[in-house]
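Researcher: We're teaching a course module on how sequence relates to structure. For the next exercise, students receive a sequence and then see the predicted structure as tokens, so they can try to spot secondary structure elements on their own. Here is the exercise chain.
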Amino acid sequence: MDAVVRGARIAYDDEGSGPLVVRLHGLTGSRAADVATGAFDPGPLIRAGRRVVRYDARGHGRSGGEKAESEYAWPDLARDLLGLLDVLGVDDAVSGVGSSMGTATLLHAVTLAPDRFDRLVLTCPPTAWAARAGQAGVYRAGALFVERNGKEMFLRGRRAQPRPAVLAEAPEGPVDVDEALLPTVLRGAAASDLPAPEAIAAIRRPTLILAWDGDPGHPVATAERLHHLIPGSVSAIARTPDELRSWGERITGFLS
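Model: And here is the predicted structure for the students to work with:
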């Protein structure tokens, strides 16, 4: 299904019935990438009596987007999320499950409109605050590389990078962004950061934080800081493939 949200066509699917859970994927990912990697399976939540909406972020997957870096900054993506809830006519508070960029989007959305959310699941929190500059440089370099060498060479370089041990058994996901738009999307991420720590410390929603070890783009330090900042939050770190596979059960249990 498609919805026009803040001038962009946003592709989404809507399954199940009951209290709503919305899924937000990571940078260069999509609903299809979630399926390919097994990163998120809505089935257990649907069977537990939840309605699940998954959508492709602006510029990702089957959603539209323009060559404007500001459209892919995390606060703007948060406004897309809130706009999609408006289009869907959702009045009740919803639960959110984010991953990486999706986690950042969810945090910006809950700081903008806290009453629209009842529970948060923050997986793979990205680099933030003092650590953000280094990762921003990686994204800017990637954008320039794509412009000079094309998406296929970018993918080859990405596949050549060592992966954390915790991901040893996980399929590598596709980069589900059109080549012409990919540099703009990467620069939008480079210009972004999580909300200020004091804004995050004001969150008063049950929160589950899940991180994996050994990934400089998603450092455990960010998850630990979020856990410290959000009162009453619960945190777990996956260090093995078996621990990573437990996330689906953890998320379903937390939201059920």
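Model: If you want an answer key for the exercise: The CA atoms of residues 211 and 237 lie 5 Å apart. Residues 2-255 form a domain with the Rossmann fold fold (CATH 3.40.50.1820).
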